[in-house]
Task: structure prediction
Amino acid sequence: MKITKKQNASSLEIALEGRLDTTTAPELERAMKESLDGVSELTMDFEKLEYISSAGLRVLLSAQKKMSRQGGMKLVHVGEIIMEVFEVTGFTDILTIE
Amino acid sequence: MDRSDYGSFVSIFNPVDNTVDDSESVEWELGHRRDTTNEEYRQKYRAIYEQGSPCETVYRVKTTDGQPPHITTMVPVRNEAGEVTAILCMQRPIREIDDARRPYLRKVVLATVLLAIVSSVFAAVFIRKQFVKPIRKVSDEATRFARENTKGENLGEISRYEELSRLAGSIDTMEKDMVNYIANLTAATAEKERIASELSLASTIQENSIPNDFPAFPQRKEFDFFASMEPARDVGGDFYNFFLVDEDHLALVIGDVSGKGIPAALFMMVTNILISDRTRMGGGPAEILRFVNDNLCEHNKAEMFVTVWLGILEISTGKLTAANGGHEYPALRRAEGVFELVRDKHGLVLGAMDGVLCKEYELQLKPGDRLFVYTDGVPEATAADNGMFGKERMLAALNESPDGSPDQILRNVRRAVDDFVQGAEQFDDLTMLCLKYKGKGENQ
Result:
């Protein structure tokens, strides 16, 4: 999985490419831990994300909880496959998906 | 002396006393004339006559005139004017000198041989003491260590030679390191075995925490079902459960904890117990899942979550009340039809956020209907090329023999998954449950 970060003052954009699963989720978790401090607007670009597993959902959930305290988080360009996972798991209820 | 080329001379006087020196020299008569037999003599004569040499010596080992080997010493004889007029020669046989030299030589040889022997012995003792012994000590220690694998006495400074001491030091260090390494490895292996045996026990506990005796309720003719759970590792985060809430209500549960292995297994045990305890207290599935969710959220520092589908079947009427906390869509097969996914109302996974409401819905089962619930290990079973089994293949497998018994249907799906992944390692826990509703007195 490829993680691309674009920081602009207090807004951060993270673009994911590939598969977010048990093996790659810790990588995203580390990247989030490093860069979420002082960020009030987090945008996750899922355009090139092919797959997300429960381990990936867990990282998103942590980020959502953290960002709801210090601003907000939104997901953009969510594809059909990923969207179905969000719908099945009820994540559509708690995530802001544009 | 013929002064032109010193080629001949006249001997004036040559007395020989063969008795004294035991030689076989021949005495020459007075005025004996001789040719100079040898170039060396010629040069010596010239040196005395022309270059003023006070003394010359000629050694003749091989003679041409049959005389024994001898030494000739020459000195000039001068007249009053100081001119050389003749040469006085004195000859002694070489043998005489040899004889005088022999005892000396013998002594020297003897002394040399003795010295050689003594120094060899000294050298041998020295080498033995300084090199062989330390090396043997090192070698013995290495052999002993290879046999016993225990730290021996420190070899330390076994020699004043740096190379040997260094070798001994290396052996000492190696032994110490090896002993530590062996101890660590033994401890690690013991630890590994302990963990393995604990895991195996944990696996048994987990297997027994969910009912797996089928048929589960042989006396109930209104329904039939079958379930299976296969963790990817020793223990897993998937689970199913079923039990009679009362005489007319059968609870069916299937769940999947995020992640795998021990953390998932621990979370699964808690969730399963919370659900079954709370369900037995009565109430609808949504109410139950909300209670479970709030409880899970309260003690969830690890931020794990679990997807749960809970259905309560009213056995007498076939009315199934269910709630879905982020779990996969159930598949339903109406009598005479095929299995299709039920796009049921979905709530959020449990443990993610407290206070979240779960949505409840109802399905009216008719005799002959079959309901199939599963965890994502089924549609997401992955082949070596990363291709996923998918829901389409799952439905196709279900519809291979939709009239089959729940047991048969589960086996069909499992076989289709195995055919698809082609021996690739099972990556996720794989759990399925199939219910066949027969209704009152029906026997389909």
User: Anything to note?
Assistant: Chain B has a mean pLDDT of 87.
